[in-house]
Amino acid sequence: ITFCWNEVDENGDDECYQDETAWAAGDPYIDANQWATYVTYDPEGMTEVIYAGQNMLAGTATFSAPVDGEVTITINLDNGFVFYYDPADTEFDENLKVQDYEDPPEGNPAIGLFDWKASIEPGSTTAEITVPLNNYYGVHLDVAYPIECPVEE
After folding, report:
1. What confidence tens digit (pLDDT) does each residue in 28-47 have?
2. CA–CA separation, 33 and 18 (whole Å)
3. Residues 33, 128 contacting (CB under 8 angstroms)
């Protein structure tokens, strides 16, 4: 899907984007038939890359050391990537989703059922979410990157 926001660039032209799904890079979900990945948490804190569309570097996810049984995950998107939402919705989608796990997760993740979600302003490049301390995390994002706008005839 290609969409244009009601934003314009410095020349007054529409900005168009291609949406993608993105994951904090890690191990593939066990016995899953898709490219979803989860990370093994390091209690010292850590930073993992975020890939969109399987192979496009979209930014980083930094996991804090635990504080009072919680971990803060800071997302920094770059390379033109921004948080995205479905413009057909009347409200923002939850475009940052996190699931914590005690044991390595198996099967295809139920992204819509992830326990921890946030609605990040479309076009934003940074976000934070605080989640319970655990051993593993699946971090899924809805993102988009700029493309050339279709020519209207």
Report:
1. 999 888 899 999 999 999 99
2. 24
3. no
